[in-house]
Amino acid sequence: MFEALMESFDLVPGLTTCNKIIVCDGVRQGDVNKFRSGLVTPDAQCDYDRYVTALGDLARRGNGAFANTVVVKLAERGGFGLAVKAALTRYVAPVPRTLGICCTLPAPAAEGWCAHTCTS
């Protein structure tokens, strides 16, 4: 499913050539799976670790939409905010960027990074 998402980047000219960071949050083990809160059984953790490894392999090969992609796996469960922080520490933009949910994606910015600019 993630491969299909990445392949959809081909629909926006220049998006596949942008640098991309995929951050995989850590998990905590428990008796039941509560995926949204990062609580998983040992079996589910094995499945997740294999998934993250497969994503990393795709990024290292760098074919198609996975070109210029890095996968970062957090050692501990941090949630969305810490995942975003982990991605931002990998790249600090030389100029301010405006991030928003309703955004347009202009042509790739300097250094291959995409600038996201809200239009509304």
Q: Please, could you describe this protein's structure?
A:
With 120 residues, the chain is an alpha/beta fold. The protein has one domain (2-94). The protein has helices spanning 2-7, 42-61, 79-90; strands at 20-24, 28-29, 39-40, 69-73, 103-104, 117-118. It is globular and about 45 Å long. Residues 100-120 have low confidence and may be disordered.
List the topology elements:
Elements: H1 2-7, E1 20-24, E2 28-29, E3 39-40, H2 42-61, E4 69-73, H3 79-90, E5 103-104, E6 117-118
Parallel strand pairs: 1-4, 2-3
Antiparallel strand pairs: 5-6
- Helical amount among residues, as a percent range? 25-40%
Shape: globular
Q: What's the end-to-end separation, in Å?
A: 30 Å
> Radius of gyration in whole Å, from Cα?
16 Å
Helix count, per DSSP? 3
Low-confidence stretches: 100-120
**Main beta sheet strand tally, sense and closure:** 2 strands, parallel
> What percent strand?
15-25%
Quaternary structure annotation: single chain
Alpha-beta content class? alpha/beta
Question: What's the structural domain tally?
Answer: 1
The arrangement of helices and strands along the chain is HEEEHEHEE
